[in-house]
Write a structure and sequence with these properties.
11-stranded mixed β-sheet; 5-stranded parallel β-sheet; 11 helices; 18% strand; binds adenosine monophosphate; binds magnesium ion
């Protein structure tokens, strides 16, 4: 199959909407990462998403809408909880996904057999237009091959899915750069399943108590069921072996410089660069978690493009605000390998 790169003009977005209406798949920009969209109400189109990505069948998809009224119009949710109304008012459109009891129109293929559904109203104008022009809710996971970092540019999508999907809309680089925040509203208090651009602090400000799922910061214990199935998979893993290093500047510089060799790379902050020998990838300023989020996946993909790099040391990010999401993705890239330099 030939994969065309469409522009973000109305004319091209309408072509992409036709593909979706006809049961096809489209790589689409959103403010978080690129999504691989299909008609959420068409089980065959949804199954094709799983095939193109090599996604495990038990990992459900997020359903994207371009207007809150579509939840009722398309019977996407059994009911809309009060918490959802508060969050929609504050954070939609935006990088927040809410899990609610699913409505009768949602195929089991979308929810991977669960009785809940994940809903998001993206703020990216191209995503909104695509959904509106198609006149359908759009199921879309990240547009990468399962196991590789989520795509934040159309080139990333091309690299992973060229020949497997008919079209990608070029909407430039994604603003947030990490996947959406996922919160479940099917229990009290609501629980954060995946951190993202909307922070735990913002959710607690809006709702009061919000629990933090264990899988956000820790590896799931053997045999425990993941509340968010996606959290149990080894995600975002570059081929090189990644280790996160916890510690102050001096300890970090001494350790990485003492262990420097040509096959080794360091992921660090801009401010660290002058003090580090050898191959380094900069995430942005130490105090700017949003910038670190924006760059992380591109850095992981750049590392993957360089076969000489076999080992990576990454500076442990600050876990406040969006930093919690950066840490959550980085520990998965590191297979949960974290070394505390103060203990050496
Ligand atoms: P992605 O589309 O790649 O951003 O992944 C979507 C994430 O949302 C995965 O981690 C899924 O496991 C999670 N998710 C989607 N639907 C549900 C649901 N009904 N309950 C819990 N987690 C969900
Ligand atoms: Mg994904």
């Amino acid at each position: 199959m030939n994969t065309v790169l469409l522009k973000d003009t109305d004319e091209d977005i309408k072509k992409a909407a036709e593909i979706i209406k006809n049961g096809g798949l489209v790589g689409m920009p959103t403010e978080t990462v690129y999504g691989l969209g299909a008609n959420a109400l068409n089980p065959k189109a949804v199954l094709d998403i799983f095939k193109a990505k090599g996604r495990p069948a038990d990992n459900p998809l997020i359903v994207h809408i371009s207007d809150v009224s579509q939840i009722e119009k398309f019977s996407l949710a059994e009911e809309i909880p009060e918490y959802a109304k508060i969050l929609a008012e504050k954070f939609w459109p935006g990088p927040l996904t809410m899990i609610v009891k699913k409505g009768k129109a949602v195929p089991d293929e979308v929810s991977a057999g669960l009785d809940t559904v994940a809903l998001r109203f993206p703020s990216h104008p191209v995503a909104q237009k695509l959904i509106s022009f198609a006149g359908l809710p759009v199921a879309a996971p990240s547009a990468n091959l399962s196991g590789s970092p989520s795509p934040t540019t159309p080139q990333h999508v091309m690299r992973d899915l060229k020949g497997k999907i008919p079209a990608i809309i070029d909407g430039g680089i994604c603003n947030v750069g990490l996947e959406s925040t996922v919160i479940t509203l099917t229990e009290n208090p609501p629980r954060l399943l995946r951190p993202g651009g909307i922070t735990l602090e913002q959710l607690r400000d809006a709702l009061g108590e919000v629990a933090l799922d264990d899988a956000v910061l820790h590896k799931l214990k053997e045999g425990r069921r993941a509340a968010s199935p996606g959290m149990k998979y080894k995600h975002y893993a570059p081929k090189a072996n990644v280790t996160i290093l916890k510690g102050g500047n001096r300890d970090f510089y001494d350790f990485v410089n003492a262990n420097s060799h040509s096959n080794r790379a360091v992921i660090c902050y801009d401010e660290d660069a002058p003090f580090i020998k050898g191959n380094k990838f900069l995430l942005g300023s130490k105090s700017d978690s949003a910038q670190q989020a924006h760059r992380l996946f591109d850095v992981l993909r750049q590392i993957d493009l360089n076969p000489e790099i076999t080992a990576v040391y990454a500076r442990c990010p600050d876990i406040n605000g969006v930093g919690l999401a950066v840490y959550n993705r980085l520990i998965r890239a590191a297979g949960f390998e974290v070394k505390d330099l103060a203990e050496i």
